[in-house]
Amino acid sequence: MARINLDPLLTFSDGSQLVVSTQHSGEGRFECELFVIRTRDNNNWEIDSVSAHMSGISSMEAQDFAFRSAQRLYPTLTEGIKKPPYLIWHGPSQQR
Asked: For residue 76, is it within any domain?
């Protein structure tokens, strides 16, 4: 994977990170999806989707939905989850 600018919402105790992908859908809406990224040997990453797509009329609205989804997914870690806005990351490449 090429270098990407990720803005973690949360770093777990094992070093993995919860991140959000934000994309313009091309239909006047924005979509977000939550991923957990784990670093493996030789700088390889394992990327797992942990949410469905969340949609909003602005990137901020979609990111707010993602933030609230992260709070529901990790209720014991809500204090550590970064609030929006987040840097824009378009998600993992299609070649997983």
From this structure: yes
